[in-house]
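B., you asked whether I could sanity-check this one before it goes into the benchmark set. Here's the sequence:
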Amino acid sequence: MTMSETKIQEALESVRPFLKQDGGDVEFVAYENNIVKLRLLGACSTCSISHLTMKAGIEESIKKLLPEVESVLAIE
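And here's what the prediction gave me:
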């Protein structure tokens, strides 16, 4: 695992308790060309406001630890 991937995992661990509280979770899939790809799991995968969770919660947390990240995308 690269240093960047380690920082992404740290950021995910910081938001994971909030996701699990609502019955969801997130899985790291890939980091390439400054784009993070994640998979939303559980309740997060079908939540109508998951796009807000991605931008306001997860992406913000990742960019704090890894400012070079341009985008965080949810994939299926």
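One thing to flag: The longest helix spans residues 3-21. Otherwise nothing jumped out at me.
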